[in-house]
């Protein structure tokens, strides 16, 4: 059990049978009435974000999340097959479970699987990945007054805004948290 007074960003907790990670929290001490903690929590099972208020000093369950290295093998319809790097066991996750992650996932890529008491909740990508540009328009000289950008489609199908000097075939470093261009690799 953990007190809501000890909330930290990234902490995983169990509330009413669901597993949440703390995205944001704020301790509030109003002039009249009891203190409370206002928090923003992300449900790790379905990805929904909820705002929840707890009384100061209230205790809730702490969820111990396990991270293991796995390798992404291939897609089979709407199922995506992964292999545990230690036991070589294979398992599948649905496209719905990997909605955002599929924008950055390449075959043979190593990622971390997130699980709670044997239940697979999803995967954690590295903060940045290298992806190849498959489609982009050529840059036009003369319209570069204020850092002009253009759209580029990556090998995974994800589209990012890039500077005009990026060409097809270039390998880019892309931030997986926001889906934005960082630099050329």
From TrEMBL:
Location of the protein in the cell: Cytoplasm
Keywords assigned by UniProt, alphabetized: Cytoplasm, Elongation factor, Protein biosynthesis
Gene3D superfamilies according to UniProt: 2.30.30.30, Nucleic acid-binding proteins
Keyword Membrane carried by entry: no
CDD domains: S1_EF-P_repeat_1, S1_EF-P_repeat_2
Entry-linked SUPFAM superfamilies: Nucleic acid-binding proteins, Translation proteins SH3-like domain
Pfam families cross-referenced by the UniProt entry: EFP, EFP_N, Elong-fact-P_C
InterPro entries the record matches: Elong-fact-P_C, NA-bd_OB-fold, Rib_uL2_dom2, Transl_elong_fac_P/YeiP, Transl_elong_KOW-like, Transl_elong_P/YeiP_cen, Transl_elong_P/YeiP_CS, Transl_elongation_fac_P
All residue ranges annotated as the Translation elongation factor P/YeiP central domain in the record: 67-121
Keyword Protein transport attached: no
Pathway: Protein biosynthesis; polypeptide chain elongation
Residue ranges constituting the Elongation factor P C-terminal domain according to the UniProt record: 129-184
GO molecular function: translation elongation factor activity
Similarity annotation: Belongs to the elongation factor P family.
HAMAP family: EF_P (MF_00141)
Purpose: Involved in peptide bond synthesis. Stimulates efficient translation and peptide-bond synthesis on native or reconstituted 70S ribosomes in vitro. Probably functions indirectly by altering the affinity of the ribosome for aminoacyl-tRNA, thus increasing their reactivity as acceptors for peptidyl transferase.
Descriptive protein name: Elongation factor P
Record lineage: Bacteria, Bacillati, Bacillota, Bacilli, Bacillales
């Amino acid at each position: 059990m953990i007190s809501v007074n000890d909330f930290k960003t990234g902490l995983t907790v169990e509330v009413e049978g669901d597993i949440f990670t703390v995205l944001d929290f704020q301790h509030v001490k109003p002039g009249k009435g009891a203190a409370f903690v206002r928090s923003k929590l992300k449900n790790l099972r379905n990805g929904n974000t909820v705002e929840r208020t707890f009384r100061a000093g209230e205790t809730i369950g702490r969820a111990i999340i396990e991270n293991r290295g796995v390798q992404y093998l291939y897609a089979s319809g709407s199922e995506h097959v992964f292999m545990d790097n230690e036991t070589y066991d294979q398992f599948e996750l649905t496209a719905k479970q990997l909605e955002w992650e599929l924008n950055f996932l390449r075959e043979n890529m190593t990622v971390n699987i997130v699980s709670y008491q044997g239940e697979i909740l999803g995967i954690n990508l590295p903060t940045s990945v290298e992806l190849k540009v498959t489609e982009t328009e050529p840059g036009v000289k003369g319209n570069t007054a204020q850092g002009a950008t253009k759209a580029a489609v990556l090998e995974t199908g994800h589209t990012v805004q890039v500077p005009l000097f990026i060409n097809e075939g270039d390998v880019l470093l892309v931030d997986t948290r926001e889906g934005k261009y960082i630099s050329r690799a």
